[in-house]
Amino acid sequence: MSTFNVPTREEVSENNQAIFDNLNKALGFVPNLYATYANSDTALENYLNFANAKTSLSAKEKEVVNLAVSQVNNCIYCLSAHTAIGKMNGFTDEQILELRAGEASFDNKLDALARLARNITENRGRTDEAVLENYFNAGYSKGNLIDTISLVGDKTISNYVHSTTQVPVDFPVAQPLQAATV
After folding, report:
1. What is the distance between the alpha carbons of residues 30 and 48, in angstroms, rounded to a whole number?
2. Which of 6, 38, 56, 164 is deepest in the core (most CB within 10 A)?
3. Which residues contact 88 (CB under 8 A, 6 or more apart)?
4. Separation CA 180–CA 17 (nearest Å)
5. What average pLDDT is seen over the chain?
6. Is the pLDDT of residue 1 over 70?
7. Which among 74, 90, 95 has a CA at the least distance from the CA of 159?
8. Which of 44, 32, 67, 61 is nearest to 135 (CA)?
């Protein structure tokens, strides 16, 4: 595999430099995965617009999807980042492990969401009818479904970018799910 270096501010376009500046102000750093998007003059801005678009899902619900999808796609970068973000959204370590496994025994509605996100990702969109019915029975709407599918796509993009580039993880590294549940 070819080596991908994380580009510095000086190595990216002016537009991406401005985005780096905004990320530094908001987060205190530019995550390596976002910097990797900046190898393209347009991908970072496009991705951030997509990732930050309005949605019917709450911040907690977004993290449920992000964790389940990233586990299926085995993306250590996104698992690490979303473990940290999940904690910021009030999930415990134990809850985060459940969400990564695509379930949530602590909340029936989030359980339906986690199971759907895992099922969509595992089956490449050929969602199991029983999982979908459970999702709707938990109180989600058709609009929520489309937003969930969009979020699965959003996270899959980042999972694939990291899986291909293998840039260093700059968050506390999430432990493997198997080691954490043994």
Report:
1. 13
2. 38
3. none
4. 38
5. 95
6. no
7. 74
8. 61
CB neighbours of 67 closer than 8 A, spacing ≥ 6?
79, 82, 83, 86, 96, 99, 100, 114
What amino acid occupies position 2?
S
Measured between alpha carbons, how far is 138 from 104 in angstroms, rounded to an integer? 13
Percent of the chain past pLDDT 90, that is, above it, reads 93
Written as one string, the DSSP assignment of 25-94 is: HHHSS--HHHHHHTTSTTHHHHHHHHHTS--SS-HHHHHHHHHHHHHHTT-HHHHHHHHHHHHHTT--HH
Q: 90-116 as b/e, with b when 16 or more CB fall inside 10 Å?
A: ebeeebbbbbbbbbbeebeebbbbbbb
Report whether 26 contacts 56 (CB < 8 A): no
Q: Quick: pLDDT tens for 118-145.
A: 999 999 999 999 999 999 999 999 999 9
